[in-house]
């Protein structure tokens, strides 16, 4: 297969491994006490509270504890006082907390410093007024801007590629804000203009703004001041946000925020060659924080291949897909040692297609075959979309019983055969970038992905955070069976994909 990913030498992977092993608890990180306490709110129901490799490399670096600067000769130096980082870590490795914790820590520290400065300034002014009073009883001082509650000028901006991710990252920020007091404003095109205005121009100020690049770029075009105080800019899913479609918006925001920027962090589960080239040219001093397993699909995720060209499918992919789902749905729930309990009784399966038009087509066919299947794309009704995703990401807290009842308009009512306790979402890349689908054990690759980057993101929706997962790829007429074999072999050897 044509190389699409930047290669990381095995020597540097081992060196990072050693560093990661040194950080065995969150307490060993110099985060403020309130941030330490907040971690427990952001990671509920988990006995295992050790930082993940992504967190072990990113948090100390963002806190200024490790300096591993690389410098590419001949390139222009970065802006003075700006520190830039690339966090490249495998899918589902906790990158969200890896950037949120140090960002919030920095915000609280900045706030404390500004408060002290404000008190000192007020004291000085009071003294000056006293002096003036004795000299000139008519003078009045101009009102001062209260830096601590400055509306519509966030200190941190987090950019993500979709409205779903805005909501997901917003929910983690909200969980943290129960303990550490800060204001997060998640805004996306799914919110009404009034909601966006109220969240951003909140009179109590906003600390962290979470949005997509196109929306924020359009807001910044009319309200340029919105980016005037940003000290921390996070570009999550940087492989998407730096690709052709998003790049103009992302770089526009980056340029507007640069004068006040202190820390820039790009996060990604892959380093495609175009990203590597761009970063080497624009950010020669960027610290690259790469986890040892980058570009490798974890061994706990297995990949099965179904040759659709053979009997009984004879080239009929839809039939092969329905049949595979029936087999998964009927198999008894197996024991998952990583969770120490029976796997969920309701099975959730993600089916990935390459083209948006196929989502409806495939979902309809599956529904005809008695399967609760729904197409998920940009035009899906937002409230329906939110409900659907909630049950796949585990944020819905729906009981297994209510979950088991068929959703309206899914499994075809006229069909007597109905596959119980199984839910299917048919989607494109929209569902593969960053969505934390912890409840998903099975991913079906209906189409062979175009690149290894897509393989990594799609298979990355299962086997998250130490859980087991299974990918099944349907190889039909015209599909590149050789590419599938390459990926499968690399996965078997535990090697990074190329
Ligand atoms: N230290 C930790 N211990 C256990 N679970 C954690 C830890 N940190 C994060 N998690 C959980 O891991 C899951 C995945 O986290 P997150 O969505 O941040 O991954 P990601 O690296 O951004 O994935 P992707 O590359 O797919 O976007 C979340 O459910 C999160 O609550």
Instruction: Tell me the total number of β-strands.
Output: 15
General shape: globular
Mean pLDDT across residues: 83
Name the CATH superfamily assignment of the largest domain: P-loop containing nucleotide triphosphate hydrolases
- What is the terminal-to-terminal distance? 8 Å
What's the CATH class of the largest domain, please? Alpha Beta
| Strand numbers in spatial order across the main sheet | 3-4-2-5-6-1-7
Total of domains: 2
Q: Nearest-angstrom radius of gyration? A: 25 Å
Note the beta-strand portion: 5-15%
- Main sheet summary: 7 strands, parallel
Q: Indicate the low-confidence ranges by residue numbers.
A: 70-75, 137-149, 398-409
What is the percent of helical residues?
Answer: 25-40%
Ions, cofactors, ligands: which are bound? adenosine-5'-triphosphate
CATH level 3 topology of the largest domain: Rossmann fold
């Amino acid at each position: 297969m044509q190389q699409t990913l930047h290669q990381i030498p095995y020597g540097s992977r081992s060196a990072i491994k050693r560093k990661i092993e040194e950080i065995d608890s969150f307490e060993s990180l110099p985060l403020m006490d309130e941030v330490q306490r907040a971690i427990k709110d952001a990671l509920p129901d988990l006995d295992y509270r050790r930082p993940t490799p992504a967190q072990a490399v990113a948090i100390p670096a963002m806190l200024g504890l490790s300096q591993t600067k690389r410098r590419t000769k001949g390139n222009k130096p970065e802006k003075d006082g700006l520190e830039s980082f690339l966090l490249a870590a495998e899918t589902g490795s906790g990158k969200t907390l890896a950037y949120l914790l140090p960002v919030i820590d920095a915000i609280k520290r900045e706030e404390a410093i500004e408060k002290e400065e404000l008190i000192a300034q007020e004291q000085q002014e009071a003294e000056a007024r006293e002096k003036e009073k004795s000299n000139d009883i008519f003078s009045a001082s101009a009102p001062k801007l209260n830096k601590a509650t400055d509306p519509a000028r966030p200190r941190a901006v987090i950019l993500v590629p979709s409205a779903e991710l805005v909501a997901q990252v917003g929910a983690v920020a909200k969980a943290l804000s129960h303990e550490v007091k800060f204001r997060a404003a998640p805004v996306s095109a799914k919110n009404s203009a009034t909601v966006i205005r109220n969240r951003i121009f909140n009179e109590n100020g906003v600390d962290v703004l979470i949005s997509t690049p196109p929306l924020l770029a359009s807001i910044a075009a009319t309200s340029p001041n919105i980016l005037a105080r940003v000290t921390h800019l996070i570009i999550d899913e940087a492989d998407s946000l730096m690709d052709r479609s998003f790049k103009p918006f992302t770089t526009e925001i980056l340029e507007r925020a640069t004068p006040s920027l202190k820390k820039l962090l790009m996060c990604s589960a892959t380093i495609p060659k175009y990203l590597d080239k761009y970063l080497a040219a624009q950010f020669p001093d960027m610290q690259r924080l790469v986890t040892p397993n980058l570009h490798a699909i974890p061994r706990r995720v297995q990949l099965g291949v179904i040759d659709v060209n053979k009997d009984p499918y004879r080239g009929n992919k839809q039939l092969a897909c329905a049949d595979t789902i029936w087999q998964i749905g009927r198999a008894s729930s197996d024991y998952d040692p990583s969770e120490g309990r029976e796997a969920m009784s309701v099975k959730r399966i993600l089916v990935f297609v390459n083209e948006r038009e196929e989502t409806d087509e495939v979902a309809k066919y599956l529904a005809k075959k008695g399967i609760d299947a729904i197409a998920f794309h940009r035009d899906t009704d937002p409230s329906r979309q939110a409900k659907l995703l909630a049950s796949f990401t585990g944020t819905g807290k729906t009981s297994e019983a209510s979950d088991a009842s068929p959703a309206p308009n899914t499994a075809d009512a006229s069909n007597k055969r109905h596959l119980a306790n199984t839910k299917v979402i048919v989607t494109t890349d929209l569902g593969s970038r960053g969505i934390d689908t912890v409840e998903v054990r099975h991913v079906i690759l209906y189409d062979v992905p175009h690149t290894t980057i897509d393989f990594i993101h799609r298979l990355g929706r299962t086997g998250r955070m130490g859980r087991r997962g299974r990918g099944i790829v349907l190889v039909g007429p015209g599909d590149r069976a050789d590419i599938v074999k390459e990926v499968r072999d690399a996965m078997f050897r535990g090697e990074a994909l190329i």
